[in-house]
Here is the input.
Amino acid sequence: MENLKRTNLRQYLSPPLGLLFACLFTPAVVLAELSGSLEEDAITKRLTPDAQVNIDTSGASAPAGATLSADAGKKRYEYTCKMCHGTGVAGAPKLGDKALWQNRLAEGLDTLVQHAIHGYKAMPPKGGCATCSDEEIRKTVEFMISQVK
Ligand code: HEC
Here is the structure.
């Protein structure tokens, strides 16, 4: 009698449980499949800047105190800042767009550099490049400004 009751209970419970699992996991699997390629792209994009820091011997990742190459700012911009400043993500002033930079230029280079180093509203400190020296960020801001002058 006891055994019978238990089996019955299990029979009643298992379909709803099965359904519940199906509901929980199917969308997750489908979503994972769908977003897989997108996610990979996004991850590669996010990883690229700092992954390249380690293998780049041209001066783009020069330690503090070392002389930065003449195009260090441009390189850093390409690696780190372009992902936002190339298209204007989250209201980032676009590279080369004089109208968008006009008021910011009025703040003066030093303020812009400080904002780039320490962050400013939606602008993350050093654009997220924790390994960048202040000098490298200054060079990068100088490069960005040179594009709107
Ligand atoms: C995650 C996106 C993002 C990245 C990466 C990023 N920025 Fe920005 N940046 C912004 C946004 C958004 C603003 C506008 C902030 C505001 O004024 O609301 C901004 C503003 C700025 C400004 C203007 C600050 C001011 O005072 O008006 C400078 C200079 C700047 N960024 C430099 C850089 C440099 C240099 C890098 C790369 C090392 C970089 N940014 C990377 C999003 C980004």
Residues 1-55 form one domain. Residues 76, 80-81, 83-85, 89-93, 104, 107, 111-112, 115-116, 120-124, 126-129, 137, 140-141 surround heme C (CB under 6 Å).
